[in-house]
What does this fold into?
Amino acid sequence: MKLGRIVGTVVSTRKEETLQSLRLYIVRDLSLKLEDKDSFVVAADAVGAGVGEVVLYASGSSARQTRMTDKRPVDATVMAIVDTIDINDAVVYDKYGEAVAEIAARAKGDS
It folds into this structure.
């Protein structure tokens, strides 16, 4: 799985019939510092995620191993919504809005 942030939606009125009930998102890859990378995927949503959320997504054949995506032509699927990320005993992401000054300080080189 890879770490990403949902940055947008994809709407398609004409598509393969098996894709009809799937919500499609643009997911931008994230670094361990939670910085956006240039790479992105269009991913089917299997967990009810939304724009702005940090998520885990799977690609390739693993993307088709959920109830929502089984036997459907998808190459990437949002598999989990991230609540927290802890790296080396330091919380670097907290979904519930608690300020994580530590990651900002590291990004600026203050620590």
